[in-house]
Amino acid sequence: CLDANSATGVNDIPYHLSALSYSGGWAPASTDPASFTTTQSSKPASLPNNAVVTLGHKDNYRYTGPTSGTRSELMEFIAAPIEWSGTDSTDFDATSGWTDFTVTVPPAPPGACTTLTGGDVMIAGYNADDPDSVALVALADLPGGVDLYLTDAAWTGSQFKDQEGLRKYAVPSEGVAKGTVFGYGGGFTEPWESMGGSFSLSVSSDAIFAYCLDATSSVVHLSALTYSTDGWVAPSPDDDSVFTTSKSSLPSGLCSNCSVDVGSSGTHSDNAVYVGNRLGTKDE
Length: 284
What we know:
By secondary structure, the protein is mostly beta strands. Helices cover 3% and strands 25% of the residues. The chain contains one helix and 16 strands. The chain has one helix at residues 71-79, and strands spanning 19-21, 52-54, 60-63, 68-70, 84-87, 102-104, 121-127, 133-138, 147-151, 166-170, 181-185, 193-194, 207-213, 219-226, 259-261, 271-273. The protein has a six-stranded mixed sheet, with no helix packed on it. Strands 11-8-7-16 form a four-stranded antiparallel sheet, with no helix packed on it. Strands 1-2 form a two-stranded parallel sheet. Strand 7 (121-127) and strand 8 form a beta hairpin. The longest helix is centred in the first third of the chain and has 9 residues, at 71-79.
């Protein structure tokens, strides 16, 4: 499908859901389309291994493995070549005889966010001059027990680079009402737990991310901010060496109005705060 930042046209950005090859493997990645024949493709770098099926050559294939399990379990089954049946026979019909899959939902782990989406928590300010602080505003009611995370680590395109700090805030049992301003450091009183690394905002440039984890421990991006003069750089999930402590890519699944770039215009500031309208709907 198309990611949230795409517009209709030839340059739309695909958000890969899955991929299958029955050519016996995947070709090396290349920026030159002419290097691929009609039977070749590279594997999308953003796809996890359990969303990719790699089969030897047969004219026809059908998945014959288990059809009941959690999403993660079924992905592992479907990605396993041993769970597929293939033939070169012209009598083979891969489209008939199907029954629906049964996808079970495992209990959400403590702290998981099952209802939050992009923009429910927005970054509304930061101080890179000591003491470091980050202001957040809830644009939706935050349920009690959810764990929120702040990091200044770079997003590579598929994960956070493990080179900076991570902090966690457990939303209290009474929750946080929409419209509430809260935050990390400075004069804020919310207790944030260190989950490792040094959360230290650079005065030259940096990126900040607010996120939570869903029931499968996958990242749910809530908002992002960069005050780097380079703005958001291109994703590079296969080579994270391009990301310094001050450069990051923008998560492709994050809605277009869920991120802020206050640096690439050339007016970098060590500290910044939102001073716009405070009355409106979440989308406004």
